[in-house]
Amino acid sequence: MPDKKPAVTVMTLGFDPEKARFVGTFVGSMMTHLWSYEGRLASGGKSLVLDTEGPSFPDTSKMVKYQDSVEIVSDDQRVLRSKYLGDDGSWHEFMKADYRKVG
Predict the structure, then answer these.
(1) Distance linking the first and last C-alpha atoms of the chain
(2) What CA–CA distances, in Å, run from 48 to 26, 41, 59, 62, 93?
(3) Which residue from 22, 24, 74, 75 puts its CA 20 to 30 A from 4's CA?
């Protein structure tokens, strides 16, 4: 039986002053697509909204729009949400991760 290795993910984020937008990438060891982000701060400045495009989950030959958001809830908590734009024209959340400092 082959060894199961945990998935590894890497997100990079920065600000491009020429575009006046946040930019970044996301890649995971379990996927073949390199996601390129372009985003902005949402009103209030507590949430970074990142737009990208990638393969559809049910049909990887089709590209769809995705949006990730990183919300600062408090000094000790961040929430990452991911959603995709469905054929019906509405956004569908498929992932939420709640990060909290320990100790």
Answers:
(1) 38
(2) 15, 5, 28, 26, 16
(3) 24
* Residue ranges covered by each domain of the chain: 9-100
Whose CA is closest to 23, among 33, 37, 43, 5?
A: 37
- Reported as a single tens digit per residue, the pLDDT across 5-44 is 888 999 999 999 999 999 999 999 988 999 999 999 998 8
What count of other Cβ atoms lies within 10 Å of the Cβ of residue 63? 12
Contacts of 50 (CB under 8 A, 6+ apart): 13, 22, 24, 37, 38, 39, 67, 68, 69, 70
